[in-house]
Input
Amino acid sequence: MNNKNKIKIFLVDDDALFLKLLEMDFLQHADFEIETFATGELCIENLSHDPDVIILDYVLDGLDKNAMNGIETLDRIKTFDERIPVVMLSSQDKIEVAISCMHHKAFDYVVKSETAFIRLQKAINSIFSFQKLEKQLNWYMERM
Amino acid sequence: MSIINRHESQYARSLIEASLDPLVTINTKGKITDMNEALANVTGMTREQLTNTDFFDYFTEPQKAREVYQEVFANGSVADSPLTLRHGNGKLTDVLFNGSVYKDNRGNVLGVVVVARDVTDQKRIATELNEAKVSAERATKVAEEATKVAEEATKVAEESKRKAENATKIAEEAVKAKQQFLSNMSHEIRTPMNAIIGFTKVLLKTDLTARQKEYLTAIKMSGDSLIVLINDILDLAKVDAGKMTFEQTPFKMALSLSAMLHLFETKIQEKNLKLVKIYDDNIPEVLVGDPVRLHQIILNLVSNAVKFTSNGKIIISTHLLCEDEKNVTIEFAVTDTGIGIPENKLENIFENFQQATSGTSRLYGGTGLGLAIVKQLVEAQNGTIHVKSQVGEGSTFSFTLSFLKTNADAESELAIVEPDAEIRNIKVLVAEDIAINQLLMKTILDDFGFERDIAENGKIAIEKLKATSYDIILMDLQMPEMNGFEATNYIRNTMNSKVPIIALTADVTTVDLAKCRAVGMNDYIAKPVDERLLYSKIVGLVKKPVPVLEQKVHVQNSGDRIKCIDMDYLTRRTKSNPILMMEMISLYLEQTPPLISAMKQGLQDKDWNSLYLAVHKMIPSFSIMGISSDFEDMAKKVQEFASTQKQAEEMPALVLQLENICVQACEELEEEFNSIKNTNP
Output
């Protein structure tokens, strides 16, 4: 909370390697405040840190069968605060997976690949322009 | 009057009378006073009738006559004035009027003496002459006109001849232009198609999801069929222009046929059809002919048969029709149990762009060029082609071709060497001007693990060849500055180099191939380049006696010495930051062993879901650590098996291979970690 101007992003993935790589990308290419979590549980616990965007892996229960999976985590985040935008990330390229994520109110769905970071960046940009539009709309609505 | 005078007078009178020209005297009033016989003759009147009448009455133009004799009175004389006398019966006599006054002793004018010289004959002659002249002139004119007409006719004839020649020329040029256009177009289309198909092939070998693979396969298939179409059009143009040439090479008929039919096996199985091969064993083993064109013919017929048959069988039969000392004639037949062709359509089924019904192409696709090409190819080789068909029952296409017999052995068809054979350190020089093709060749050659160098044209290729030695040159034929033929010629004749040269050509006309051989190229390969073929050709030429035994070395086994990891990606991503690299490596080392054991456990417990998830987690790490995408593919295969919950036979082997590579990667990464640590304290 000490760095109010920076956008705060949560990265959630149980693949430590990929998580690290993603963190690296975010830190190198843009001025973000990044928090990384290996599990959905850890992410939920830290929602009070007030993230602006959450990037969430779809398969979080790869090794620990009892771990919360991506969709569960997504639901929990949305219960906590529906306004937090969540971008789902997965190596799954199945349409059904993507659709189910969107049904669970994910903002976008990005497939893990070499270009994942670029697409995440784009998704984040559109989140903010979307939020800005929404704010403007509200401002006008209030005055009508 | 004295006697002498009388004599003289008589003498003069007789002279006057003797004159054939009319002589007349008139008084001042114009009345005739005297005349000779000639005047009486000319006018047809007696002297008595004439005497004392008006002289000018006897002329056709009395007024003019009067003027003339008045002129005589005025001037004293007149000479050769033309007038015409009229005879009583209407006959006209042209005369020349000459006259002079006569006076008495005192000089008083008594009258005029007129001599009217008869010029009828002269006139006639003159007229005749004139007429002759006129007719001569007319004749000349006619002749001239005739000449002119003749000339014009000639001109017209020449013109039309020239026009005809022009038309022929234009027609010939049009044909030529058409061919040139087709040839150019095919080249222009092939070049980008080459890139599209080539890169699609390259992409297909990379790490892909099933969906991406499906899309790319669709792209590749579309590209392939486009290439087939372009080749078909080009072939037709060549046959039309009589430019299709046929090779005369010894080949093994039976082998050649079965190799080709092999291509259809999947397709035939997919459609649940039966393929029946009937081969006449009396056909000599080796024959001389054009196996490529024979393939093309049968390929077209069989692919039609497959296309139009939804159940039943396809029979391909060969039958030795006759054999003498030099030749054999073979009948080939392709019979299907397909939709058949209506009888009224049988006639033009072999024409360009014809399919039995216009709906055929909608239902079955195709351009309708296949049979046209088949017919042309058969007939150009003095063969005949027939079709028999019954709607709903099926069709039989049969054709006969003659082949020369020979004692020679067939050229051993280059066995396709498996691309995973371990042949390294081959240095390839690629002479190619088009950037995208350069990139494609680079990618393919890199894939083969060959060293490669690119030259934009023949000249640069020669310079490079002078500076460095290469094992083989891949030479595009059409290049700016110096084309492939010129470059090869230089390399062979001026540099005296025997370095193997493979021609890369988009336009596979037989003329080109002959030219390739003529300048000393060793082989050729058509674009789009078939990688396996390129590989086997390169390897075949570079390592002439290919040591067959040492080839089957598996990557995994030889991989003990070759590093399986490649820090390239990581270095790039971390921007060579040693701390980040060490972090990444340690993360891998931390998370991989549990993944391996989860994977093994999953397999052991047949817990497909766990196995799936463990392998799933493993997949991204392969590319991060630069491990060959082969293993990624293996992992994906395991994933597929796991998701279908089926125990596949190869599963344990795949899991073992994954385990091995991960263990090896861990070992290597540990070393890497330490070396980074040591160099960056």
User: Anything to note?
Assistant: Residues 69 and 95 of chain A are 18 Å apart (CA to CA). Residues 8-142 of chain A form a domain with the Rossmann fold fold (CATH 3.40.50.2300). The first strand of chain A starts at residue 7 and ends at 12.
